[in-house]
């Protein structure tokens, strides 16, 4: 197996581990996925969650994930359209996050309401001195999708449904 292929597979595994940590609400695992300040260089690490301003610095990035995890009872990512490029010690991953999330459980113990969404994400990884691939930057942008409120409304022109995030 070529070194380039091995790098792509290692980056893919790191990218999957990032989303797995968020799904499990595992802050320790998530923190291990991000570069330390000295590894990230002058610009540090950064994150842009959909609808949020850019956050820079390891502390701010990890706090943002802690807030998301604390306020999300259930989240699952189905990654599609994943593309990985590796150049030296830097890797770029683009993917579509098909997100299923939910609120608090119902009084009877059943799952709470679930909501789906699409986010196009770019994750930048950097190889550390010990050979691990760690997140340098994450940027997620919501995808606007059309949704028809009432499929039986024949007066509406095709493609004129409401826009939803």
Give an overview in words.
The chain has one domain: Nuclear Transport Factor 2, Chain: A. Strands 2-1-6-5-4-3 form a 6-stranded mixed β-sheet. It has a two-stranded antiparallel sheet with strand order 7-8. 18% of the residues are buried. Helix 1 (3-24) runs antiparallel to helix 2 (27-33). A hairpin with a 2-residue loop joins strand 3 and strand 4 (90-102). The chain has helices spanning 3-24, 27-33, 37-40, 58-70; strands at 46-48, 55-56, 74-87, 90-102, 114-127, 133-142, 145-147, 162-164. The termini are far apart. The longest helix is centred in the N-terminal third of the chain and has 22 residues, at 3-24. The chain is 28% helix and 38% strand. It has 165 residues and is α+β, with helices and mostly antiparallel strands. The chain contains 4 helices and 8 strands. Residues 151-165 have low confidence and may be disordered. Residues 147-165 have a biased composition (Acidic residues). It comes from Streptomyces iconiensis. Residues 138-165 are annotated as: Disordered.
Write the layout of secondary structure elements.
Blueprint: H1 3-24, H2 27-33, H3 37-40, E1 46-48, E2 55-56, H4 58-70, E3 74-87, E4 90-102, E5 114-127, E6 133-142, E7 145-147, E8 162-164
Parallel strand pairs: 1-6
Antiparallel strand pairs: 1-2, 3-4, 4-5, 5-6, 7-8
Helix pairs in contact: 1-2
Say what the CATH topology is.
Answer: Nuclear Transport Factor 2, Chain: A
- What's the order of the H and E elements? HHHEEHEEEEEE
Q: Mind telling me the CATH class?
A: Alpha Beta
Q: Numbering strands along the chain, what is their spatial order in the largest sheet?
A: 2-1-6-5-4-3
CATH architecture: Roll
Largest sheet: 6 strands, mixed
Low-confidence region ranges: 151-165
């Amino acid at each position: 197996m070529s070194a380039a292929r091995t790098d792509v597979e290692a980056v893919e595994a790191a990218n999957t581990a990032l989303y797995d940590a968020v799904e499990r609400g595992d802050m320790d695992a998530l923190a291990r996925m991000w570069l330390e300040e000295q590894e990230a260089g002058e610009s540090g690490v950064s994150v842009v969650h959909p609808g949020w301003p850019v956050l820079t610095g390891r502390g701010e990035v990890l706090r943002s994930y802690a807030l998301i995890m604390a306020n999300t009872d259930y989240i699952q990512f189905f990654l599609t359209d994943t593309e990985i490029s590796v150049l030296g010690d830097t890797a770029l991953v683009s993917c579509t996050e098909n997100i299923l999330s939910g609120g608090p459980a119902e009084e009877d113990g059943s799952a709470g309401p679930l909501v789906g969404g699409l986010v196009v994400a770019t994750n930048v990884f950097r190889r550390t001195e010990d050979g691990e691939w760690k997140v340098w930057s994450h940027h997620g942008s919501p995808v606007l999708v059309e949704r028809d409120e009432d499929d039986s409304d024949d007066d509406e022109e095709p493609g004129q449904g409401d826009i939803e995030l």
